[in-house]
Amino acid sequence: MNNITIKIKSAGYLDDPEVIKDIQFTLRQGELVGLIGANGAGKSTTMRAMMGLLPKFEGTVSLDDIRYAYIPEHPIFYDELTLWEHLEFATAAFHLEKWEARANTLLTRFQLDHVKHDLPTGFSKGMRQKVMLVLAFLLKPELYIIDEPFIGLDPRSTKELLNMILEEKERGAAIFMSTHVLDTAEKICDRILLVSGGTLIAQGTLAHLRERSQLPNGSLLDCFDRLLEAVES
Residue 29: is it exposed, middle or buried by C-beta count within 10 angstroms (0-12/13-18/19+)? Predict the structure, then answer.
């Protein structure tokens, strides 16, 4: 996979065409980039803009030749398909063969093997989130776009998700993930993007953000607060 450069001059909806603006960054093979910001800062909108899901968009993003998997914050399922039938549908769409063994391994890792023939529409929030994770990891794409993956996950599943992310990084996949769990982002992200008011206010490694915020030993939360105060003042 070549580097993916995202240049968003503006993007939004019919009634608000500039929800986000002036956002530019690059995703590289084998790298985890974290996207952080307050509620309403534009994180989910940035992801939708990347995938061409917004009615208003001005900029350049090219994912045409890249297999990617999107894990939304709010899982969506077909009402009449079981968990296993969702896996069958996804693998057929991507023309994957000999996927059953990997699917069963993932279901076991995320503690879903006992409900694989049940309807996900009746699952708890955490279980529904894990189904989306299994679907994404089963496809083994070149790029993961993950929106708030830790919401609703129990500690064991959170650990398993982090292990899977590290495995996919080692495989060479690029991972773009938004999260409010800043202590986790601080530990696992190679680079971090800070957004506020629909605009990118800073990006770089934690060391870079510490230097820019003049907090040599600051946590990611400390740096984010300092940089946000500078923008708002």
Answer: middle
In the chain, the domains with their CATH numbers are 1-67+142-153+174-233 (3.40.50.300)
Task: Give me the sign of the Cα torsion angle 39, 40, 42, 47.
Answer: positive
Q: Which residues contact 229 (CB under 8 A, 6 or more apart)?
A: none
Q: Assess whether pLDDT exceeds 80 at residue 233.
A: no
pLDDT for the residue 107: 97
What's the pLDDT at 62? Answer: 80
Q: Which structure tokens are listed for 170?
A: 């080692």
- The number of C-alpha atoms within 13 Å of 28 and in the hemisphere containing its C-beta is 5
Spatial strand order of the sheet with 191-196 comes to: 68-71, 143-147, 174-178, 32-36, 191-196, 199-204
pTM over 0.85: yes
Rounded to a whole number, what is the distance in angstroms from the first to the last CA of the chain? 41
